[in-house]
Amino acid sequence: MKRTVFVASLLALGVTAAIAQSDVVKERQDLMKQMGAQTRPIGGMLRGQEPFDLAKVQDSLKIIATSAEKVAPLFPENSKNVDKTEALPSVWENKAKFDSIRSKLHQDAQTALATIKDEASFKSEMPKVLQNCGACHNDFRKKS
After folding, report:
1. Which of 39, 55, 56, 64 sees the fewest Cβ atoms within 10 Å?
2. How many of the other CB atoms lie within 10 Å of CB of 11?
């Protein structure tokens, strides 16, 4: 009887750990999609395909800055080899660089939020924020 309870406990623990890994991956994927959704209208504004909208830019920058902070704990070591993730092993192999880019994204988004007041300041500051997205995707995300 004790053996059965022990085995059942181990199985439950394994299932719980698997669920926790998939939850953290889903959570970070949702967060990344949310950040990506913010960059589309901003990119349209930068290319002149959409009119400049300061309120929309400020809302997007708040989400990007907040998300850059929230994403840090969503890359635990035990989520490294989970299926259905676009995160490369380099995230965990070069964690200092990954965290540096994430931190710079947060800081650049905060700076842009404080300094963008019109279309001219938007066009000079926003590319600095978006460069962080590109830097991270180049080194830490599978190419699709």
Report:
1. 55
2. 10
Confidence band of 15 (pLDDT split at 50, 70, 90): very low
Count of other CB atoms within 10 angstroms of residue 10: 10
List the one residue out of 135, 140, 110 whose CA is nearest residue 125.
110
Span 7-31, mean pLDDT? Answer: 67
- Give the list of residues 6+ apart from residue 2 with CB closer than 8 angstroms, or none: none
Amino acid type, 10: L
Residue 34: which residues within 8 A CB-CB, separation 6 or more?
63, 67
The pTM is what?
0.81
Give me the residue label for tokens 């998939």. 22
